[in-house]
């Protein structure tokens, strides 16, 4: 494995994972709320 400021890399990966997770939750929330109509 390549170690280049692994701390920064892990923080960036965690931030991206949280961001994607929130976007998926919002997407499914809108799908459910607008799909009931």
TrEMBL record:
Q: What is this protein called?
A: Membrane protein
User: Which positions, given as ranges, span the membrane?
Assistant: 12-30
Superkingdom per UniProt: Bacteria
Q: Which UniProt keyword terms apply here? A: Membrane, Plasmid, Transmembrane, Transmembrane helix
């Amino acid at each position: 494995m390549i170690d280049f400021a692994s701390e920064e890399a892990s923080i960036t990966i965690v931030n991206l994972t949280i961001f994607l997770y929130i976007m998926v939750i919002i997407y499914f929330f809108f799908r459910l709320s607008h799909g009931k109509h």
